[in-house]
């Protein structure tokens, strides 16, 4: 059990170097970060700043070079049943139906642990509850290739939730979906977050998405990847949010603060300022020439 004051996840002095074809690449440097129990934390930042690498290390899918990751105070040395990842590309088994996909990993795990009949019955109950939660009841016997991207991602999330993971690690889960489907998925994931009481670490490029969903947004800066800033998000509780919120001045102000940080960390801000100076110079030169 995790006392409320203890972080669910603690990242301490984490560094990551990749070695490819005799060359070293410094991907992450001295990352210190804590994720609280039942917190929704979003990671944003320029492409290549190391968001996915950090998430994969927390998931135990990638090794670290320096520092440590603790979950409930215990060091992470690989994947664990307490942490489940959801990726952008759904990774469903095409030969299994929706309900079979949702149950598959849990069945494998149960088999490995020599589960009892009571375990099997509770797994069936759980899979039906998740079908209902994710709005998948009507397609439970369909195969993934008959489903839209949004429905496939619902199946992938239901499958991830089957084992009641304490930590859900989501790597741009809605990145391949159209704008309308993303909005539906945002409200759905807030429902899941509220009902399942998980801790979520969510990687995204979309600052709107990060501000709408997260309790805190971490901006990572590149070369090598490090924490630039951490932003507390002040919005109504998850189930009281609706899409119109994204147009409210307070929401836009929080989004702008984060976007400005990302621009600063990537040099885009410098480029924009240089463009502005050049435009002003060209305009001044043109008006001087007209005056001649
Ligand atoms: N297995 C690997 N071997 C070598 N370099 C890698 C490997 N995985 C990632 N990298 C490099 O590490 C850096 C961080 O990659 P990562 O995918 O974590 O960034 P990201 O912020 O998630 O990017 P994006 O937003 O584009 O998905 C990149 O420069 C990438 O090329």
UniProtKB/TrEMBL annotation:
<dbReference type="InterPro" id="IPR050166">
    <property type="entry name" value="ABC_transporter_ATP-bind"/>
</dbReference>
<dbReference type="InterPro" id="IPR003593">
    <property type="entry name" value="AAA+_ATPase"/>
</dbReference>
<keyword id="KW-0813">Transport</keyword>
<dbReference type="InterPro" id="IPR003439">
    <property type="entry name" value="ABC_transporter-like_ATP-bd"/>
</dbReference>
<comment type="similarity">
    <text>Belongs to the ABC transporter superfamily.</text>
</comment>
<dbReference type="GO" id="GO:0016887">
    <property type="term" value="F:ATP hydrolysis activity"/>
</dbReference>
<keyword id="KW-0547">Nucleotide-binding</keyword>
<protein>
    <submittedName>
        <fullName>Urea carboxylase-related ABC transporter, ATPase protein</fullName>
    </submittedName>
</protein>
<dbReference type="InterPro" id="IPR027417">
    <property type="entry name" value="P-loop_NTPase"/>
</dbReference>
<feature type="domain" description="ABC transporter">
    <location>
        <begin position="9"/>
        <end position="247"/>
    </location>
</feature>
<dbReference type="GO" id="GO:0005524">
    <property type="term" value="F:ATP binding"/>
</dbReference>
<dbReference type="Pfam" id="PF00005">
    <property type="entry name" value="ABC_tran"/>
</dbReference>
<keyword id="KW-0067">ATP-binding</keyword>
<dbReference type="InterPro" id="IPR017871">
    <property type="entry name" value="ABC_transporter-like_CS"/>
</dbReference>
């Amino acid at each position: 059990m995790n006392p409320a004051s203890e972080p669910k996840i603690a990242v301490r002095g984490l560094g990551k170097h990749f070695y490819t074809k005799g060359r070293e690449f410094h991907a992450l440097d001295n990352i210190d970060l804590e994720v609280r129990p039942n917190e929704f934390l979003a990671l944003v930042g320029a492409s290549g700043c190391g968001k996915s690498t950090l998430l994969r290390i927390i998931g135990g899918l990638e090794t670290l070079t320096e520092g440590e990751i603790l979950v409930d105070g215990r060091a992470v040395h690989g994947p664990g049943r307490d942490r489940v990842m959801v990726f952008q590309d759904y990774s469903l088994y095409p030969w299994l139906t929706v309900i079979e996909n949702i149950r598959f990993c849990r069945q494998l795990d149960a088999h490995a642990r020599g589960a009892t009949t009571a375990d099997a019955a509770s797994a069936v109950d759980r899979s039906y509850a998740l079908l209902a939660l994710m709005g998948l009841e009507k397609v439970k016997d369909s195969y993934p290739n008959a489903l839209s991207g949004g429905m496939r991602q619902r199946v992938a999330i239901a499958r991830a939730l089957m084992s009641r993971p304490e930590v859900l690690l989501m790597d741009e889960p809605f990145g391949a979906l159209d704008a309308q489907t993303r909005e539906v998925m945002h409200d759905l994931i807030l429902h899941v977050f509220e009902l399942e009481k998980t801790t979520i670490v969510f990687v995204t490029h979309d600052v709107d998405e990060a501000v709408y969903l997260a309790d805190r947004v971490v901006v990572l800066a590149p070369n090598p990847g490090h924490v630039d800033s951490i932003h507390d998000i002040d919005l109504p509780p998850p189930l009281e949010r609706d899409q119109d919120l994204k147009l409210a001045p307070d929401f836009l102000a929080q989004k702008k603060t984060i976007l400005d940080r990302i621009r600063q960390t990537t040099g885009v801000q410098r480029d924009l300022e240089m463009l502005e100076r050049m435009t002003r110079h060209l305009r001044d030169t043109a008006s001087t020439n007209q005056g001649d």
